[in-house]
Design a protein that fits this description.
alpha/beta; 6-stranded mixed β-sheet; about 35% helix
Length: about 250
């Protein structure tokens, strides 16, 4: 069996559970010559040459490179192009092809209730969340510390004034604020809600984050990012597996 190398690229990866997940997956499938490594890169300049030199068959992408990798790729699939962010890359015939498994993974974790949504952040994870919300016809706004730089974004002060008026509200933290090791940080000060509120933090390490602990103390429903992590990893593997065995979707 040919050796296959996969991995995750990012800036700081001490929080990541991806290597553990894929190592367990390979063991379950009896793929003894498959490996998955973490690669902390200072930038994605020269990414294609690096990936080919490392002999990778594919890799995942996390913060802060989900947008920055795009100019380094040869092609985007339809979802990645629509989202405008990439978290999964396949390598085929020395061509790097970008995919986005964050968006379908997030969508699979949503319930069926229609609600107003506020998405904190404007990076790759936030764009994937927005794409999933659009597929569900859920109205949303981005929340940013620099809203003037981003279409459809409002400030955190504007969010505080508007958010709590909605009877069914979804608040998504798609920023790294609160992620290990900055576990005492929170992106938003909360107040007691008038209606049903779900606070969804894409962070999974730690869990619960400070944001989720404070939300639960105020009677809000909470969800962390671990289920989404597992779903996007499984979707990434299916993309790589289909490429390997020639199955067409």
């Amino acid at each position: 069996m040919e050796i296959k190398h996969f991995g995750l690229i990012g800036c700081r990866l001490g929080h990541s559970f991806s290597q553990e997940w894929f190592s367990r997956k390979f063991a379950e499938l009896g793929l003894k010559k498959y490996s998955y490594e973490l690669f902390e890169l200072p930038s994605v300049d020269g990414l294609k040459e690096w990936a080919l030199r490392m002999g990778l068959s594919g890799f995942n992408v996390t913060v802060p490179y989900k947008l920055a990798v795009i100019p380094q790729l040869d092609e985007l699939d339809e979802v990645a192009a629509s989202v405008g962010a990439v978290n999964c890359v396949t390598i085929e015939n020395e061509r790097l092809i970008g995919h986005n498994t964050d968006a379908p993974a997030f969508q699979q974790t949503l319930d069926e209730g229609e609600r107003k949504a506020f998405v904190m952040g404007t990076g790759g994870a936030a764009r994937a969340v927005a794409y999933a919300l659009e597929q569900r016809n859920i109205d949303y706004k981005f929340v940013s510390r620099t809203p003037e730089k981003h279409p459809r974004a409002i400030s955190y002060d504007e969010m505080r004034q508007e958010a709590w008026k909605h009877p069914r509200l979804l608040i998504v933290n798609a920023t790294p604020v609160g992620m290990y090791p900055e576990v005492d940080s929170t992106p938003l000060g909360l107040q007691a809600p008038e209606g049903d509120v779900l606070v969804y933090d894409l962070i999974y390490n730690p869990s619960p984050t400070r944001l989720l602990r404070e939300a639960a103390a105020l009677g809000m429903r909470t969800k962390d990012g671990l289920e989404m992590l597992h779903l996007q990893a499984d979707l990434s593997w299916k993309i790589w597996e289909n490429k390997e065995i020639g199955i067409k979707n």
